[in-house]
Amino acid sequence: MIKSKLLDPRKIELDMNNPRFSLFNFENEKEVIDYLFKYEDIKTLALQIIKNGYITLGERVIALESLKKSRMKYVALEGNRRIAALKIIFTETNRFSSADRKKIEKLNVKDFFVDCDIVDEKEEDEARFKITAKHIDGIKAWNPTDKRVFYDNLFTQYRVNGVSSEDALKAIEKVTPETQVKIKNALRRHKFLSLIYDETKTIYPQLDYLSHLDSDVLTSRVQQRIKDTLKLVEDSDFFFKCKEGKENEFKAILHSLGEATWINKTLNTRTFSTQNMWEDILEKDVVIPGLRDLIQHYFLIKEPPIEELPETDTISETGGEDSSENESD
Length: 329
Prior knowledge:
Blueprint: E1 3-7, E2 12-14, H1 29-39, H2 42-52, E3 61-68, E4 71-78, H3 80-91, H4 98-105, E5 114-120, H5 124-134, H6 136-141, H7 144-160, H8 165-174, H9 180-203, H10 216-230, E6 233-234, E7 240-241, H11 247-263, H12 278-284, H13 291-299
Parallel strand pairs: 2-4, 3-5
Antiparallel strand pairs: 1-5, 3-4, 6-7
């Protein structure tokens, strides 16, 4: 039998493991709310709640109940967007206009307590499985990058827990709308993009979230060509592995790809519209400036430094002193 509880929304934590939130590696709840406010318009939802009250019809909020340090903790497994909207109404009124703040002042938070279905922490895995499976149609509608990151987060969790790559793929297939082949290809693309993104982000820290960047040219055109050109191999986690001792050169190549795509925007599906343009791009050195030289350096064999012998004093054949000193006037 499902247990229900009426909970104060201010005390329900957002789920940092929610598939949508895990796309961005948020460090805390404030970052999640900032994202939802900026990109998913929870302010409009909050204004509707202020005007009409919290309507419980429709999908119910599902909360995970667990005992932490002698205190009961609740995390929203389902309904994070609604909980976030309620949170900003009662804890972050600075996000609203003065007129809206006056309306909020008249509200009683107890009228907005949320009737939640409660999941015990022992049932967490099963509950997450069912919730994810229920949202399969939603996953289908995600943009390609969001989908890749979602698969990668699941894959990484399994691998960290000691599950083999093969078994991890099988497990992901059970809760997603796609085949193992498509999941594997999505993981390959994400691993490649994440390598490029990380190298670019170090130089350009203001770079937007990966899922908000146009990366189509990198996955549809560049990935296979750079793999073939550099003769890269793939490890069991689908990461490209470069030649031993060429890590810095490989990072420089990745950075040049990211900079050309996301910063200078010279590399896109117009400037690289067909696969057979790759050699021309390298030769002209305009679309991805410097890439040709970076690739040459990648294959350059470093000669070991020549060890110089220490200088020694020479002794003349005439007995060790400068011969000029032995000459008579």
